[in-house]
Structure formats: C-alpha cells, structure tokens
TrEMBL record, chain B:
NCBIfam families linked: anchor_AmaP (NF033218)
Gene name per UniProt: amaP
Lineage: Bacteria, Bacillati, Actinomycetota, Actinomycetes, Streptosporangiales
Protein's name in the database: Alkaline shock response membrane anchor protein AmaP
Keyword field: Membrane, Transmembrane, Transmembrane helix
Originating species: Actinomadura logoneensis
Sequence intervals crossing the membrane: 59-80
Amino acid sequence: MTTHAGRWPASRTSASAQASAGKGTAAARAARSAFRPRRIVTSLVAAVLLTAAGTITAIEVVSGVAGHPARLVPYTRVADWMRHTSWTHWGVLAISAGLVLVGLWFLLAGLIPGRPRVVPLRGDDRDLAMAVTRGGFRNALAAAAEDVQDASRAQVTLRRHRVKVYVHCPAHAVDAVSEQVRRSVAGRLEEIRPLARYKVVVKPLTRKG
Amino acid sequence: MDRHAARLNRVLLVLTGLLLAAAGGAGLALGLRAFGSARAHQPVLSGQTRHFATAHGWYWPVVAALAVLLAIIGIAWLLAQGRSDRIGGVVLDEDEHTGRTIVPAGTVATALQDDIERVPGVHAARVRLSGKPSAPAVRVNVAYDRRADLLELRDRIRDSAFARLRHTLELERVPAVVRLRLVTGDERRTVE
C-alpha cells in the first residue's frame, strides 16, 4: 500500500476554500454541466424517426400529387383501414398510447438533466472542470479505508449521496476499526472534494474462525 | 464531443416529445370518449377530413412542405451528432504590426500532453482543442494507474500543466474539461 506516498497534508483543504466552492458557484455549475449525459442515443433514435417519417410522407404526397404514387407504404390499405375504424378501436388506442409513451420518453430525456457517469470534482476554478471515473473514486476511498490499522480488503460502493465501505477486520476491534475507517474515508472525501456530498457508512466484516 | 450538440439534443428532444405526446394524447382522448361518444365512434379518417383535403387546393402542398421540413430537421439533427468542434490551430497574438501567429493545435496538444504525462503515475493523456482559434477550450482524458495519487494528480494538472498552457498561449482563460480515468484499477486488489 504505497499508493499515496506524496499526498498533501489534510490541512491543505482550508475551510475558506470549502466555503467559496459551494454547490451554487459558477465553478460547481460548470463542473456539473460539463459531465452531464448528452442524450446521444435517444437523439439518434428521434432524429432517425423524424427523418424517416418526413421523407416517406414527402415522397408519398409529392408522387401522389404528380399522378404516379410511389407506394412506399400500402397507402390504400392504410387509408381503407382508417376509414372503417373508429377512434374506440383497440388498434387506434394502442397506436395513440405508443405515441404518448415515445413522446414522454423523448420529453423526459430532454428535460431531466441526467446523472453523470463520472464523479465531478469540486474546484475553485470555473474554467477547469474535473471528474474522476467512479472506479478511480472508489479505489481512492478503498485505499483510505485500508490505511487504517487492522482494516483490510476494503470494498466501496457508491450511491447518490452515500459511500458504503465494506472492510474486513478482526472481531475484537470492530467498533474501533469502523470508527477509524469512517474517519479516514471521510477525510479522504474532504481532500478529493467531489461535487456531491457523501455520507460514509462502514460495514465491518469479521473473518469467521 | 461538444456541449453544443448536447443543448441541441435537449431542445429537439423536448419539441419532438411534445409533438408525439400531443398527437398520441389527442388520439387517446378521442378514443376514450373525452370529446363525447359520437365523436369517438367516428372513423379515424372521416369523410369530413377527406372532403376538406379535396376542397382546399393548398392542403397537399402544405403537407408535403411540412414533411420536407421535418426530414431536413431530422437530417440536420443526425449530422450534428457526428460534428466535432475541433480546431486546427490557436491564434497566439494578433496586432497590426506583427500580424497573426498561429500555433497548430497538435503542437499545443502535445505540449500539454507531455506536461501531464510527467506527473508520476500518469499513463497517458489525450488532449483535444475545441472552441474558437482565438478562444480555445481544452478537453483532456488522463489515464492514471494505481501508483498515482488522485490529489497530487489533480493539483499538479491544475497548478503546473494548465498554468503553463495559459502562459504559453498568453490567454487568461482556457476553459478545460478533464476526465481522470483509473486504468488497472482492479490490480490493487489482486496484487496484494
């Protein structure tokens, strides 16, 4: 475990820097928005649908007006079905419901900001947005947990606002180790300064036998 | 890879979503007798609609024009996904006497890459320049391994690599997005 030989002392993260880099600052906003999902897959689906619908309709209408219907879709059959089907027919209702669902999907994808796949870091500089992958973040926290004497094989899981640390320790030292691990991980969080606030929960695991 | 596409995506997704949801919602409302039972039992394509289309000469041309418009929006939207805002060079200084000096983006990127790769534990750095040649922005992907310390990495990138970049380019602000990626992350657990 020599992962952090050259680490800065914890005092480096001063209280004033913490206060000035709060959640609502320009730097925090820049960091958050820089790593938001860009909704590429949903947009591709929507764009393809739009293009297909527009092109097919345009070709049908123009060729129909010109007197040589292209018949890309079985137009007469569709028109016939629509002429003999009322709005209460299950098929019509199903199509309408499908449209509503797809529409809501697009709408929500556009409106909900979405959570970044990486962990944005808090910075004082609004021109520098940094993020670390979740794996890297978990790894750094697990290393902090393993810094504690008697704690070994730490595993970290990430929730939205919670860090859960599973750590192995001898049965006689569960309470002491848990507290130390919690403090160590919380300290490392202070230093890494992720944008979101995390609560640290320690789950001690004692070896059987 | 630019945020411009992200904003475009969101706006168009909301508009398309509204359109589809409104159309589907209207169909459902009709079918579920929100507009009365008589209206609900009329055929989807009623004689009235057909009569309207034949009575008004502008109907089909307007439909065709709308369809073409939709298709154009769709194609432009598709193309926007692949478009990148990379720039080929950075304008260093521009005044009447010396003219303009342009540094190729590759040179700037390589210099920054080398600076970052000098930080212990950094495997590789990939730098891309975007924005405007007179106001470039930087996007960096840093692959670091378990020997690197996340805090030191972060401080050194900010305090030395980017400070130098700003100094070299003689710019006060160079917006940057940095993604730190741990490679060989699982090694730590197996090597122990």
